Amino acid sequence: MDATRKERLKAAGINVDGALERFMGNAGMLERYFGRFLEEKSYAALAAAVAADDAAAAAAAVHTLKSVCGSIGCDRMQELALAQEAKMRAGDWPGAKAMMPELQEEYDRVCAVLRG
Length: 116
Description:
Layout: H1 3-11, H2 16-22, H3 27-39, H4 42-51, H5 55-72, H6 75-89, H7 93-98, H8 100-115
């Protein structure tokens, strides 16, 4: 990861320093995980489960998504997933479903940043 990419990721809200710490400073490995995030299926599974009104499947998917985002420094996406998961655990399914537009927007933004 060159300095320009690192600064671009940071400017877009990716916690690169925190992620690099979790990856023991291995920027190449972090870049590979950024690529894996783009192929990761937990967001698609979450969206499908919410559309199907399947709260159990949505809870499993959002839990995975939250963890993946945390690992690679996508802090805002992780915060949203954490909030949605909390709503699900509290039995607020309508509230959890209502978060999907914001999650979709952040997911699209993160993917665009990682591709750039």
